[in-house]
């Protein structure tokens, strides 16, 4: 795992400006070594300058100990090293100071200027010292050795620490950049994971809503018709026993068909396999009365990958209206404009709106005259289902039809999800109207 910036900041436990105790101990060791070197070099300096040895040693100790603050003030360390160059002391301080200066994030012109001053100072001091030694007879080499020694000595004391410091500083900045980038990527991954979890939760909620809506569309219409026919069966049981027997058989077949469809849908939810098409009813004459539920079952089968399309389509709308009419509803269908194919989701939504509206008529206004209008327009498709007041208001309530209150909400969600407009409400004549417009 990568270490974030907050964790690195929390890991800083050293004193003062040091990030760690080992850094402080290392700098302290360098300062002690530099102070010892400068103190030893202070003895010949004191003799040449004609000052007491103690003063030269103390001066060397003070100058060498400046290396302790090399991480805090590297420019001050380099300036002190340049200042004591004529006294021929502070070689370790100058090397370490240049290295530290090159590793810092300072402008290159400042680093170059201080390095040039150090190079020039070392070169002049070396040139003078070597020339003096040759004048005293300590060296018998030719005059060419003086500039050679001055140049090589100054370059040897300046170039290696400077180049090494530039390399280490660049590498350090690169590693810091990579760490920051890794931290940024880690934070982005965490945000993406959180957003993915939120999207997954949202998708699960949407899927639950979609499954509930599909189950409502597939089963509700058929069960509503069963309740209506069961109520009618009570009325004709004594007057026409043969008709009552036929109606009872019809209700039984409708119930079995509804259970079959419900079992298939629940099986799909458990295993993810495609449902089989339900078995046909025993009585072919009962097909017109229960075809509304059959259409919903066919939609589920087609959605599962069976032949016949991707779901109910507008071409089946006339059949749906005819089946409701065969079930006893007075319903009229009118189509305006030139019919044309639409997207599968648009046609399925339009079909479901009409189906749910007809189901509500069966539930709440049995026997009411109903009009279904479908209009094909240039950039949209519009549908309207309007029913008048029921001839006997007590019929629906006597049938005991339950209502979950989600039918209109489900229709509105379907239409709005496609960018359409959905309006429903009572009419002035005492009926109810459902209107929807879906962009094509």
Automatic annotation (TrEMBL):
Gene3D superfamilies: 1.20.5.1930, Histidine kinase-like ATPase, C-terminal domain (3.30.565.10). Residues 168-199 form a coiled coil. Its EC number is 2.7.13.3. The keyword Transferase applies. CDD domains: HATPase_UhpB-NarQ-NarX-like. It catalyses: ATP + protein L-histidine = ADP + protein N-phospho-L-histidine. This is histidine kinase.
